[in-house]
Amino acid sequence: MRSPRRHPLLVPALLCAFAVLAARPTGTSAAVDDGEDTHSAADAGINAQVLRLYEDAAVATQQYEAGRREAEVQRAQAVRFEALLDRERRGIAVLNEDLGRIARAQYRSGGGLPITAQMILADSPDELMRGQRAVWQADLAVNNAIDKSRRAEQRLAADEAKAEAAWQELDRHTGELAALKKDIEAKLDQARWQLQGQADASVTAGSCRGAVRLDQPKTGAMKTWVAPVESYALSAGFGSGGERWANRHTGQDFAVPIGTPVRAVGEGHVVKVSCGGPFGIEVVLQHAGGYYTQYAHLAAVTVDQGERVSPGQWVGQSGTTGNSTGPHLHFEVRVTPEMGSAVDPASWLSARGVSLG
User: How far apart are CA 201 and CA 187, in angstroms?
Assistant: First the structure.
């Protein structure tokens, strides 16, 4: 018969093991958490990359526009050089004509005769001196005309070189700026769709990735109310109809590229963050006065549910998730947090000093 005291530490060890198992999450949950941590870091990287490329693209565009204006100045300068060259060419042609006239006149007046022949043919010393002075004057005029023509030709050659250099510099500078802008735009486009791919995967899985923490803009000097995006083109408006909606359109669409920072229009707090359904990834904020604003079809969110937000604070990045035909922000104003209670967002913002142009 076996003794019950053979393993005195067995029972306490088992109890400790059960306690550890009870305290830790299940293996599936732990794997998901670890994966989410990894994905969050990766997501934050691509989100930040999109924003950085936006900034680079903005700088490149500014440089391109400055270069374009500079190129216009250079182009005008090159045109002035060309006009100067035309005048110099016409001047040289006139000088050549003058040389021809002087030579013909000298030939007709006998200026080409040797001094010995002039002495023999002269009737008097005075006539000889007058003839000699005429010859000297003619020679001086010819020499001056030749020197003037040579100097003009030298200036013409130098100005032609300047004009050619101006055109070459113009082409080089414009080409460099265009190549830089094109390269940044290509990288930005690739990063945008990588961001959208991550968003689509989250929507398909029905699992929100959570807030991606990015460096927020300074909102201290912001107005009380702002537009939901800084730069945009308005597309579908409130109440418009079409095949895309079962009823009338319930919000205002802002056509913006994927990854565009989406801003809280006013102070409030986050009452909803979701990533499924027709709106794809969306954020709903509650504001004073009982109004709610919705930001839909996002590619990412940068706030968590329950978080307070300031006017102009980024709440997400635009995308094309859910029932969307292309990159845009669907912005909605409601009197309840759920759909079905929408009011005209353009009029609502206008009443708060924000005009959508």
Answer: 21
Count of positions (residues) in the chain: 357
Q: What tokens were used for 305?
A: 């549910």
Q: Which residues pair with 263 in a beta bridge?
A: 314
The token duo for 282 is 């969306």
Res. 61: pLDDT tops 70: yes
Contact 261, 310 (CB under 8 A): no
For residues 128 and 122, is the Cβ–Cβ distance under 8 A? yes
Q: What are phi and psi of 337, to 5 degrees?
A: -70, -15
Query: Average pLDDT of 313-322?
Result: 94
Measured CA to CA, the distance from residue 269 to residue 257 in angstroms comes to 26
> Residue 260 — very low, low, confident or very high, per pLDDT cuts 50/70/90?
very high
SS3 state at 343: strand
Residue of 131, 277, 266, 151 lying closest to 204 (CA atoms): 277
Measured distance CA(189)–CA(176) in Å, rounded: 20
Residue 242, classified by CB atoms within 10 Å of its CB into exposed (0-12), middle (13-18) or buried (19+), is exposed
Q: In degrees rounded to 5, what are phi and psi of residue 177? A: -65, -40
DSSP per residue, 305-318: TT-EE-TT-EEEEE
Largest CA distance in the chain: 169
pLDDT value at position 37?
A: 45
* Mean pLDDT across 132-150: 68
How many whole angstroms separate alpha carbon 350 and alpha carbon 357? 11
- Inter-residue long-range contacts of 280-289, CB under 8 Å, 24+ positions, other chains counted: 280/199, 280/203, 280/319, 280/320, 280/321, 280/322, 280/323, 280/324, 281/199, 281/202, 281/203, 281/208, 281/316, 281/319, 281/321, 281/322, 282/322, 283/315, 283/316, 284/337, 285/309, 285/315, 286/337
What values do phi and psi take at 258, rounded to 5? -60, 135
Residue 341, φ and ψ in degrees, nearest 5: -130, 30
